[in-house]
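[Discussion] Sanity-checking designs against the backbone

I'm trying to build intuition for which residues belong where. Below is a structure token string of 321 positions. I'd appreciate it if someone posts a full sequence so I can compare it with mine line by line.
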């Protein structure tokens, strides 16, 4: 894979991606450290241009991009952005049946407008976004937009966006529905871009088995911090990587306490996720899937998401020295 994102679905997920060299560089001794842009959700400006600056200031050269900034850059209607409870006084307030019906109608109208936009927008805007990031030295290896409740036409749209951005895979939460797993895998095969499924506390050694069986287009985007908090069911994080390395498109890294220790998200190096061992195993085995920083621990007073993400990157750098 060089200029195009297509994988052929038979090769190693990122083995020949030709990641950008120069400043910044988070390719550390053969291990690609990345970040999901969700890490910057607390920053005031959520535009794609601002997020690029956050990424650069964090010392990151490859990312998993959330859908909101990507679609906003491409001109998504404002009604389709963000979310929230809406209505009078937010989620906790008492609302009348009329208010509930009005809110539901507004949400349905916004969803219809968003779908219409998605099925009509040119991929040129996403290609322009790719160029903006690539010219700054940042590659986009994944984008997170896909949802099983989308129509087939929207599935095509999401995979086309992934291709336009230069992604090797698109990420989504792991569905429990086998029909959806098969459907998602079929679209991945059709577009030659992996569908990498993300796990939270349902992550175990066998959580991805059925997805893998149903399609070679289904891959793993395992979160190893959540895996530890769930109890390391079936084996340690490194054992998971050894068993499934051929079916991993990317991993998420965060430090969490173990299930026995309460499972809290904590500053890196203070929890039970064996981050150093994970990274060193990636280096020793020449595993080429990216290790994605996901900032979820509480940001200390006086700091911000950019500084803390940079701290996580430096933790990785020290572990791989």
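Best answer:
Here's mine. Compare freely.
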């Amino acid at each position: 894979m060089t200029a195009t994102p297509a994988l052929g679905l038979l090769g190693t997920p990122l083995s020949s991606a030709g990641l950008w060299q120069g400043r910044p560089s988070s390719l550390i001794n053969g291990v690609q450290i990345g970040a999901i842009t969700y890490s910057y959700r607390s920053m005031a400006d959520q535009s794609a241009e601002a997020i690029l600056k956050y990424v650069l200031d964090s010392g990151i050269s490859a990312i998993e991009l959330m859908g909101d900034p990507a679609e906003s850059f491409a001109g998504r209607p404002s009604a389709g952005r963000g979310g929230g409870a809406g209505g009078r006084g937010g989620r906790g307030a008492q609302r009348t049946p009329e208010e509930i019906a009005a809110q539901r109608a507004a949400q349905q109208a916004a969803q219809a407008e968003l779908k219409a936009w998605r099925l009509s927008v040119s991929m040129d805007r996403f290609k322009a976004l790719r160029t903006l990031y690539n010219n700054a030295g940042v590659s986009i290896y994944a984008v997170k937009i896909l949802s099983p409740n989308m129509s087939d036409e929207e599935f095509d749209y999401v995979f086309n966006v992934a291709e336009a951005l230069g992604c090797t895979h698109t990420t989504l939460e792991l569905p429990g529905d086998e029909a959806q797993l098969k459907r998602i895998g079929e679209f991945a095969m059709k577009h030659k871009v992996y569908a990498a499924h993300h796990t939270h506390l349902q992550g175990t050694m066998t959580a991805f088995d059925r997805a893998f069986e149903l399609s070679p287009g289904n891959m793993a985007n395992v979160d190893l911090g959540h895996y530890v908090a769930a109890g390391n069911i079936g084996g340690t994080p490194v054992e998971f990587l050894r068993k499934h390395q051929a079916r991993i498109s990317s991993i998420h890294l965060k430090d969490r306490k173990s299930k026995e220790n309460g499972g809290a998200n904590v500053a890196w190096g203070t929890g039970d996720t064996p981050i150093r061992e994970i990274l060193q195993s990636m280096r020793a085995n020449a595993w080429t899937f990216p290790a994605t920083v996901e900032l979820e621990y509480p940001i200390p007073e006086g700091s911000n998401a950019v500084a803390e993400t940079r701290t996580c990157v430096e933790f990785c750098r020290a572990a791989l020295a």
